[in-house]
Amino acid sequence: MERDFQHTNELKQIVPSQTCLACDVCCRFLDSKSPFAPIFTDEEYGKALSSGLLENQFSITSDGSSRQIQLKSHQDMFICPAFDPKTQHCTIYRDRPLDCQIYPFMMMWSADYQSVLLVVDRLCPYTENQIQGSQFKTYIDEMVEFLESIKKNIAQNYSLVSHFQEDVIVVRQLQKLTKLLVNRCVS
């Protein structure tokens, strides 16, 4: 059954808030053109604008259905404009995009572009310590089920699936999403 993409707020977080707030990885990037800068669907983009972000802080993605946030310079790196480095909080947290909600997970093409993978960012310190635990493994199953349940919406916003990167941990193939996207995007 296809879930309503608009109700992704039901997705629980695996990383405890206190861990996130003490971390210096999320929402920070080494490159102003990082491929991991959050992607917003049209609806998420509308909510972000209503929450105070500006149109010129986004660029349209290759799928034509979504937008990527433009990172801003901060000290020796780049940050999401919705991130407040003083408080470590996201200013649009309640309306943050799916791309941010699923972190430290990401959707990524395999190196040969023949499948869509669910991966975990190695930079997340929580992931490093918890990935082998039973709670994390159960959460992986729940994440796969959730993402596969909104596969049509993800396929429409296929820029949510990033190009393969070596510095991630591959946890699962997203089989239903792969079937929808392989022929559409890899031709």
Round the mean pLDDT to the nearest integer and report it: 89
Elements, N to C (H/E): HEEHEEEEEEHEEHHHEEH
Oligomer: single chain
Largest sheet: 4 strands, mixed
Q: What number of structural domains do the residues give? A: 2
- Gross morphology is globular
Report the sheet-strand fraction. 15-25%
Quantity of strands, as a count: 12
Distance between the termini: 28 Å
In the sheet with the most strands, the strands line up as 11-9-10-12
Give the low-confidence spans: none
- Rg of Cα set: 16 Å
* Helical residue percent band: 25-40%
Structural class, by secondary structure, is alpha+beta
Number of distinct helices: 7
Write the layout of secondary structure elements.
Blueprint: H1 17-22, E1 28-29, E2 39-41, H2 42-50, E3 58-60, E4 66-69, E5 72-74, E6 77-79, E7 83-84, E8 89-90, H3 98-101, E9 105-109, E10 116-121, H4 125-130, H5 134-149, H6 151-156, E11 161-162, E12 168-173, H7 175-185
Parallel strand pairs: 9-11
Antiparallel strand pairs: 1-6, 2-4, 3-4, 5-6, 7-8, 9-10, 10-12
Explain this structure to me?
With 187 residues, this protein is of the alpha+beta class. It has 2 domains: 15-99, no CATH class; 102-187, no CATH class. Helices cover 31% and strands 22% of the residues.
Give a short overview.
This protein is 31% helix and 22% strand. With 187 residues, it is α+β, with helices and mostly antiparallel strands.
